[in-house]
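Open question from group meeting: does this chain pack into something compact, or does most of it stay loose? Before anyone orders reagents, we agreed to write out a predicted structure and look at it together. Recording both the input and the output here so the notebook holds the full record.
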Amino acid sequence: MANIISFVFGLIALVFAIIGSIPFLGLLLWPVLLIAGVGAAFGAASSSNSGRNFCLVVMGLCVIRLWLGGGIF
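Structure tokens returned:
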């Protein structure tokens, strides 16, 4: 059950990450890191790793995008 919750949090974070990848909407990626982090925490409580790994991938993409934009753009 925790894996499904983690995957849902990851999907929500991915939708907002896609929107945040548009130029000048990079500030939206900071809350995405929080949402994906909560999803990864739920995934860590699960016996399966797929939801946790998905959230970690979304977090990694957001970190790279924030790094390229200087944390703002």
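Observations to bring back to the group:
DSSP finds three helices and no strands in the chain.
The mean pLDDT is 94.
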